[in-house]
Amino acid sequence: MSDHKKFYINGQWVAPAKTRDFPVIDPSTEEECAIISLGDQTDTDAAVAAARAAFPAWSQTSKEARAGLIERLLEIYNDRAEEMAQAMSKEMGAPIELSRQQQVGAGSWHINGFLKAFKDFSFERDFTSTEKTLLEPIGVCALITPWNWPMNQIILKTIPALATGCTMILKPSEIAPLSGLLFAEFVDQAGFPPGVFNLVNGDGTGVGSQLSSHPDVDMVSFTGSTRAGIAISKAAADTLKRVSLELGGKGANIIFEDADPKAAKQGAIRCFRNSGQSCNAPTRMLVHKSRYDEAVEMAADVAKNTHVGPASEEGRHIGPVVSEVQFDKIQKLIEVGMGEARLVAGGTGRPDGLNRGYYVKPTVFADVTNDMTIAREEIFGPVLSIIPFETEEEAVSIANDTPYGLTNYVQTEDDEKRRRVARLLRSGMVETNGQGFAMGSPFGGYKQSGNGREGGVFGLDEFLEIKAVSGWAAE
């Protein structure tokens, strides 16, 4: 779409009620790559009204009809994958290979996962011989998504909402809106009825707050910072709408004495992936003292040998962080860390040879204690903190000593220990020995990491109300 300033409302690309230009900055170059418009209350109201008007008919369409449209959307998504990869690479700085394989791939992976879960999903369930439990779409949903994994999060919200019969308004991040606008094109091309899917660009204090407090919005699904999640919850409280949150994290990667020899190397690589801009990144590496010096050296080598470069450059490197605001925040926290712990790789400033763009040196701190700022705050950059421990109990205590609880990691060849520690960790996900999660696995956290689950049947459940009906005659 050549005009990025338009919104998608009621099946049409429409101009904003008022022009409020907002530049989209390519983080690799710090240059403007597009201009969008930020919506205001009039735009929000129009999108909500369109979704509200479309809900009665869409909620009553057959499961087969909704699945067919989602299958068509998947075909379009796959056919236009390169366009999507280029959009995400430009708007948020993911290296083009990462954008093609993982950023775009995450979207198609989750669409397939939802279709698989939806195939055998029943909206009517027998409770007793005369009572039926009905699962019904909750209604109009506001979907507010972040910039770090744009398609991953847009797909995790829009597809289950569409499948369950909800209508929606998507507000993608204003920092990385190009992928969301392209996705709206895909939805339009797939032929969803007008008003079922709507998109309004805006910032959190504007359209985000308007959607969160809107009396005709039945649910808000938000992914982003814990601070913003708290604000959305407060805004939604007056209308008692459902709020599903996927928020920050400060994952602990526990490396026991019998872990794989490459565990520290793999943990550092995972921490730096996507330039550290993942809520589930293993940013605290907890290492048994018998393996500690080895792990510090290994992680430092990874950092020193991780190439940093432009998103347009082919290869397996890391790109810039998304914005000047994020760059400045990360630099300040690295500086704090240099006064708290032992810097073994990286540090402040851009990597050598890069004097423009929001590039951050992959950074490793050793001799970190869990009360330090760099161990407490979600830095959201390629920064790793390494903490020693002596006993299993100490490792679990350190891992759990955080306001977050999204993903923790356990590395040990002792199966009994691995399962025991996994049960004790207070997080929504525990990845062990590098084994990734299956398609449709529930993604979400404990504590200040949020309160919802996304993916597969769990993601479908998020968008449904439960109705009990007595006296249901036997069929």
Tell me what the structure shows.
There is one protein chain. It is built from 15 helices and 19 strands. The chain is α/β, with parallel strands linked by helices and about 475 residues long. It has 2 domains: about 260 residues, Aldehyde Dehydrogenase, Chain A, domain 1 (3-Layer(aba) Sandwich), CATH 3.40.605.10; about 190 residues, Aldehyde Dehydrogenase, Chain A, domain 2. β5 and β6 form a beta hairpin. The radius of gyration is 23 Å and the shape is globular.
Q: Count the strands?
A: 19
Largest sheet: 7 strands, mixed
Question: Under the CATH scheme, which architecture of the largest domain would be assigned?
Answer: 3-Layer(aba) Sandwich
Strand order of the largest sheet: 14-15-16-13-12-17-18
CATH topology (fold) name of the largest domain: Aldehyde Dehydrogenase, Chain A, domain 1
**Straight-line N-to-C gap:** 51 Å
How are the secondary structure elements laid out?
Blueprint: E1 7-9, E2 12-14, E3 21-26, E4 31-37, H1 41-59, H2 63-79, H3 81-92, H4 96-119, E5 124-126, E6 132-137, E7 140-144, H5 150-164, E8 167-171, H6 178-190, E9 197-199, H7 204-213, E10 219-223, H8 226-237, E11 242-246, E12 252-255, H9 263-272, E13 284-288, H10 292-304, H11 324-340, E14 342-345, E15 363-366, H12 373-376, E16 383-389, H13 392-400, E17 407-411, H14 415-424, E18 429-432, H15 456-461, E19 464-469
Parallel strand pairs: 7-8, 7-10, 8-9, 10-11, 12-13, 12-17, 13-16, 15-16, 17-18
Antiparallel strand pairs: 1-2, 3-4, 5-6, 6-19, 14-15
Helix pairs in contact: 2-4, 2-5, 2-6, 3-4, 3-6, 4-5, 7-8, 9-10
